[in-house]
Every structure is written in C-alpha cells, then in structure tokens.
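Q: I have 342 residues here and want to know how they pack in 3D. Can you give me a structure?
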Amino acid sequence: MKAGEIISGDENPWTNFSKNVAKYQTPDVWKSIWQIANTFVPYVGLWILIVYSLSVSYWLTAFLMILAAGFLVRLFIIFHDCGHGSFFKPKKANTIVGAFFGILAFTPYHKWHNMHMQHHATVGNLDKRGVGDVWTMTSEEYLASAKWKRFKYRVYRHPITMFGVGALYVFVIQNRTTKKEMSRKVMLNVHFTNLALVVIFVLMSLAIGFWTFLIIQFAILYLAAIAGLWLFYLQHQYENVIWVRSDKWNYREIAIDGSSFVKFPKLLQWFSGNIGFHHIHHINSRIPNYKLEKCYDENPIFKEVEPVTFMKSLKTLRLRLWDEKNQKLIGFRELFRQQVTA
C-alpha cells in the first residue's frame, strides 16, 4: 500500500484500525518500573565498574564504555516514551522520569519533545520539512541551488559529518541553546538541564577527578549519540520510503510507507527499546516501547512493511536526495547518471 492509494469497502485494512491498535497504548506501570530498573541501575553500575577498571585494563574500560553507551540509548528511549505520555498514565510521572533521564542524555525534555511532536505531525510531508528531521532536498531543488548551497548539503549529508560531527553538535551544543521563539517553559527547562549538568560535572569531578570524568562521560555520550542518530536516520531515510506533498499527505499511510521497520537482532532490539518498529510508533505514539513487538506480532498489516536489515541499512548511506519524479530516494551518482542520459 502506497501513500495516496485509495482502498474502499471491506478491503480497507484500516477499517478496524482504532480498535486493533488502541488496545496496546495503555501503559503497564510495573513493566515501566521494571524497565527503568533494568536500564538505570545497570547504567549506574557500569559507571562504577568503568572507574575501577581504569586500574585494571583499558581494554576492559573500553568494553564497559560501549556497554554503558548501549544502556544510555535505552535510557533515551524511555525519555522518548515519557514525552509521548506513553510510559505512565499520569502526566506528572512522565515529566519527572523524562526530565531526569533527559539530563543523563544531555537533552532538555520540553525543548526536544516540542520539536519531536512537530516531526510526528509533518513526517513525510515535502512541504513541511525542517523541524526535527534530517535535511533532505529534492533532486530538483539541489540542481536549482547555488554551488555553495550544494556544497553545504553534500557536506551535511556525508556520513562523517552526520554521525561523527553531528552527534557531538546535537547533544553537546544544540541541546544547550535557546531561541527567542521558545516559550518560557521550554527556555527554563533548557536552563535547568544545563544547570543540572554543571552540578553533575562538579560533583563527579570532585569524586573521581575532572579529566577522568570528562573522558568517560565524553566517550559514553559520543558512542550513544552516534548510535542514536543512526537509529533516527534509518527511521525515515531508506530505500522504499515515501515522501509526498501536502495535498496527498495522509497520517496513517505515511506512518506505514514513510516510517521504517528496522529488523534488529534481539540484543540490539532490546538496547534500542524496540524503536525499530517505527512504523507502529508513528501509527500510535502512545504505545509504550515494550508493547510495540506484541502489536506487530498480532496485526498482519504491519508485517506488510519490508524490513530494513543491517546490510540494507548500510546501503541507505548513499541515498541523499528525494527524486520527486520517480518517487524514490537517490544518491548523487544516480542524479549524475540521470543528467548524462537526459
């Protein structure tokens, strides 16, 4: 099924959509608490082990840092669920847990989720790009752009820039700043998050030393940020993705055809908090992450989406432009071939 396709009568797979999917959106408080426990406690424990491992083996330290980065990604998924109000029923509980985990993930809760909600409302819409998504130009826009803009776009879309430089920029710099158009609530949350991070830096520096803390924190955050941005990139940048103009945009269809199903091995699926079932998340963002797989297993329509495997995910790195005429993502080489044969 592709965006804009009209299905009528009993053939419409969305006939019982609300009933079939909404039943998964009620959070289970004990599962939520258990997920916090099996994520936050190991993360703190790994920090302690990392500090002690410095006197044992740097190889052991490196391994523990990679493991800690995995748990930080999982903490971010809980933070993400809280912003959607899917982790607990009470809004206050979501805000408290989300804001706390946001500090650990160097991400202000209200600022990030304001942008993220706009992303959900505009995903796959060519006329509403630019908020909470990866910069994506159409091939026509790229060809019509000045050389300097083309150069900036090519640099931006390069994997080293996106995941190497971008990971640091987003979590270390972008998340620290405010803008005039932000509400007072959002600005205060950014300042509170920054202040909390300063307090953590001071206390941890006094406990284990400034440079020791800085190196450990930087390494864990950087690895987690690269993994997190990679996951975010795969959600809407893959071979069979769909982008349309506003007049053809439909939330349900774009959720299915414009959001990926990334099929991870079980261990990576656990660390990524089932975010690979992203097409289901965009259908109903109120479903907590620990119910996404169950929703997938029990609703055949979601299995119609072709999964993005690890090998396919690597191929997405060459896709840089949306070819509006042929309705697909293409790379710069394919654009060049089109120009030569035109």
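Q: Anything worth noting?
A: Residues 88 and 153 are 40 Å apart (CA to CA). The chain has 16 helices and three strands.
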